[in-house]
Amino acid sequence: MRQHLLLIFTLLFLAYCPALLAAPPEAPLATADGATDIKPPLPENRYVISFLIFGQGDDLFSRFGHIAIVVEDQKKGHTRVYNYGTFSFNDKKLMFKYARGYLRYWLGIVSYENTIRTYKYWDRQIDKYILNLTPAEAQNIADMLRVNALPKNRYYFYRHYYDNCCTRLRDIIDRLTGGAFKAEKSAQFTPGHTFRYWTRDCLVNMPVMGFLIDYVLGREIDHPISRWEEYFLPARFEEDLPSITMPDGRKLIKEHLILNNRQGPEPREQTPTWELIVVISLILIIFFTIILPPVLGPKKGLKRLFSLGLAFWGLLCGLGGLILIIFLFTAHTDTHWNENIVVTPITHFLLIWSAVSLWRKKANSEKRFAILSNYLFIHSAVLLIIMLLKIGPFIQQNWGLIFTMLLSNMWLALVAIPRLKLTDKNIIGRLLCKKNGSKE
User: What is the spatial distance between Cα 332 and Cα 313, in angstroms, rounded to a whole number?
Assistant: First the structure.
């Protein structure tokens, strides 16, 4: 019996011997206050990265949409929104800086809850795209944003088409794909797609602001652009997000969530009231001061009424030309090489010069209108030349404005001035006199 017990004890000792001989685990190092330096294991993916894409809003600044990037820190339990579209409305020199092309934006960090609440209040469409990233990729983006948001790094000079809230996030995705995303999309072109095309599309039913923005932009925005360049618009970027694949074949987007559906009509389906008032006012002024007096003929008071309309039209066109000249000396390359400088030239102030003499009933009024008529014919010839050059170097899409100016020139020179008997000493009048003299 003793032999059996000794055998069993020996076998148990041998079975547990490795465990008994193994080195005991090291005790955690303690700090002065008794706390240990052992850190809890990090989640498999500490950061969750998402895009927040906001649809169009009702005001001008929101007509192009917006996008921000969200970083959810699962370790610390907070979620932050990194917004590259931050600028100060309280800056007293805001419009002056924007006009010069030196409007400074920065990367702001805001609360996720407040962001969602604010855009819901503004009745904006909100879509959230959770990115399908590896822990290393998510960590890399979180670190990059943290460094980029430091005071010394956060500021940049905003350029609407080339460096904005969307192009910066587009570039982040391109870095994740090792440049493959840009290489693919830079080779894709859609006929007719230009920066001007998309600008007009975003500003549909904004007749005043849409025209003014279109007017000051030169031929720089009329070149064909690639799909890559179209990503200055969040809506275009959003269209392609689901189809983007990473180098290892996985889809970029893990999940798409709709956080808010717009309740009201789409912004592009309605026109701001103040813009309707401006358009109607312009139509009435032009009709009653420029069109109606020549139709009714040289009656008492109609000439003076016409002089008001002539001065108004000259101020409108001449001031436009002056503004375009000023834009040549700004950092806005988008406004350079603008054909509208010639289409609505500063020389149209000549109309005011003639209108003043008509209002005051000066003796040299007829001579001034002879000069004005000849100027209008010459300017019309210049417009025709520009139209011919459209098959060559002049690519700016401003046909509507050219036709408007050509029509107004012809109306003033061939209809209004002759019917109101302001002068017959112009190019056409001299040609007619020579023709009649040769017949006699």
Answer: 27
Are 186 and 211 in contact by the 8 Å Cβ rule? The answer is no
For the full predicted model, state whether its pTM sits above 0.70: yes
Would you place residue 252 in the very low, low, confident or very high pLDDT band (cuts 50, 70, 90)?
very high
Beta bridge partner(s), residue 54 = 66, 126
Residues 6+ apart with CB under 8 A from 428: 373, 377, 413, 414
Question: 133 is written with which tokens?
Answer: 């990233």
| 136 vs 55: CA distance, rounded Å | 31
- In this structure, the strands spanning 155-157 and 253-260 are unpaired
Class of residue 371 by CB neighbours under 10 A (exposed 0-12, middle 13-18, buried 19+) = middle
Alpha-carbon dihedral 260, 264, 270, 273, rounded to 10 degrees: -110
Q: What residues contact 204, with CB distance under 8 A and at least 6 apart?
A: 210, 268
Q: How many CB atoms neighbour CB 90 within 10 A?
A: 6
Integer Cα distance of 272 and 268 in angstroms: 10
Q: Residue 167's Cα: distance from chain center in Å?
A: 11
Going along 142-282, which residue ranges are E strands? 155-157, 253-260
The CB density around residue 252, as the number of other CB atoms within 10 Å, is 20
pLDDT above 70 covers a percentage of the chain that reads 83
- Structural contact between residues 366 and 423, judged by C-beta atoms closer than 8 angstroms: yes
Strand 155-157 and strand 66-73: the pairing is unpaired
Q: What is residue 258's DSSP assignment?
A: E
pLDDT tens sequence across 82-127: 999 987 766 666 566 566 656 788 999 999 999 999 999 999 999 9
Beta strands across the sheet bearing 47-54: 155-157, 104-111, 78-86, 66-73, 47-54, 126-131, 253-260
Amino acid at 38: I
| Rounded distance between C-alpha atoms, residue 274 and residue 279, angstroms | 9
